[in-house]
Write a structure and sequence with these properties.
This is Hydroxymethylcytosylglucuronate/cytosylglucurona te synthase. This protein is an alpha/beta fold and 403 residues long. The chain is built from 15 helices and twelve strands. It starts with 10 loop residues before the first strand and ends with a helix.
């Protein structure tokens, strides 16, 4: 008897993504879509908290339940009242523990196993029912050491829709006349910041100038910065290029990357994986948080492409980032956020010139690289993440029903 057949309500799945950018929620959306595609019978998705992800998850979630992000005892009570068959949590380890405390077998997806060290090692739920970690290149011995303590660890591939470029028609290259570019800023909301304008205000002018000088005529800027703010940032360049603005739906986002001859991306892991799954040439924008520095390095290792922008050291000093991040991720992020804000206030013009000058060299180098470079990240990570998550979630629900 299938899980969906055992009660009139079918299978009930609780989901939660950490409120840090869009990556955890994009992964949830892809995994839930795969669950819905493969489940036999009815499937009801109940989301707890995950406010940052509502624009991405609304089409796959049936019911939203509030969670303030701090009261985990209240979360346990709310979960217990829902009679869930299984739970799926991305990156929020304390929430995964709260689901388990409510008696719900929980599948925890760790998209960033490299992130945890020092006091942050209190976050990963080592005893959760199933711990799924993204199979990433270049994980340190320190990371692999603490992961040996995970009770039920399974490595999974990228949680992105995937269709090989040899099957899916690829947009014409820049050399063949494609003058479309996409700048993906991602979801810039974080645990300690609601600022979605400072980073693009500092980065976009130099990036846009370089794209125009390289002959790009259509520039799409995707992110959760309000459109009026983005329009003001590109106003000086309106006569030189056509601009469009996001945010975009999940399907449209991937389509727009695939149609572009070049992608500029802040180095969020899900953004890099999505771009890699389309094979579009990519230049990494300077990181906007601690994890961005690590994710940029993962992309470099996997692709071999040295196509990343560096912050001027008098704006964001990577050595200071590493030292602060050694104390905690929060300390590192606080430094990066403050440094970017100070850079906008004091060094905006110098930063514009630095990024533009770096891009004048990087754009032709990037476009000259072989096409198979750009799928290197998903090829090394794998593309089976959504399928594997769906299998584990449904098997966990089924085993609970039969016990």
């Amino acid at each position: 008897m299938s899980v969906a057949d055992r009660t009139p309500g079918g299978i009930r799945i609780g989901v939660l993504g950490v409120n840090f950018g869009w990556g955890p929620h994009a992964a949830l959306e892809t995994a839930i879509s795969e669950i819905r595609r493969t489940v036999s019978g009815d499937c009801r998705i109940i989301a707890f908290g995950s406010e940052y992800g509502r624009p991405l998850l609304d089409n796959v979630v049936d019911e939203w339940i509030e969670f303030d992000g701090t009261d985990y005892a209240a979360l346990t009570r709310a979960v217990a009242a829902q009679e869930l068959d299984v739970a799926l949590v991305t990156l929020e380890g304390l929430a995964a523990r709260a689901f388990e405390a409510a008696g719900v077998r929980t599948v925890f997806v760790d998209l960033m196993p490299f992130l945890w060290h020092g006091p942050d090692l209190a976050v990963p739920p080592l005893d959760v029912s199933h711990y799924l970690a993204l199979r990433l290149p270049g994980l340190s011995s320190e990371t692999l050491d603490w992961m040996r303590g995970i009770r039920n660890l399974r490595w999974v591939g990228a949680v992105v829709p995937w269709q090989s470029p040899d099957v899916q028609p690829v947009a014409r290259s820049h050399a063949e006349g494609n003058r479309r570019a996409i700048v993906t800023l991602g979801g810039m909301l974080g645990l300690s910041t609601r600022d979605t304008t400072t980073y693009p205000s500092l980065v976009l002018p130099g990036a846009v100038e370089a794209l125009i000088e390289a002959g790009f005529e259509s520039i799409l800027i995707a992110g959760n910065t309000p459109r009026p703010d983005l329009e003001a940032m590109v106003a000086p360049y309106r006569a030189q290029a056509e601009f469009r603005f996001g945010p975009l739906s999940r399907a449209e986002y991937r389509t727009r990357i695939a149609e572009s001859a070049l992608c500029f991306s802040q180095p969020g892991l899900m953004s890099l994986l999505e771009a890699s799954s389309t094979g579009t040439p990519l230049i990494r924008l300077p990181p906007q948080n601690v994890s961005g520095f690590q994710q940029a390095e993962i992309h470099r290792i996997a692709t071999g492409a040295h196509t990343g922008l560096d912050w001027p050291t008098d704006v964001v000093d990577e050595a200071v980032v590493a030292r602060k991040a050694g104390e905690s991720e929060a300390a590192g992020n606080d430094y990066v956020y403050a440094a970017i804000a100070d850079g906008l206030a004091r060094r905006a013009d110098a930063t514009r010139r630095s990024l533009r000058d770096q891009l004048e060299k990087l754009i032709p180098e990037c476009l000259a690289l072989p096409p198979d470079v750009w799928t290197g990240l998903v090829e090394k990570v794998g593309t089976d993440g959504a399928k594997e998550i769906a299998e584990v979630v449904l098997d966990t629900a089924r085993s609970g029903a039969e016990s």
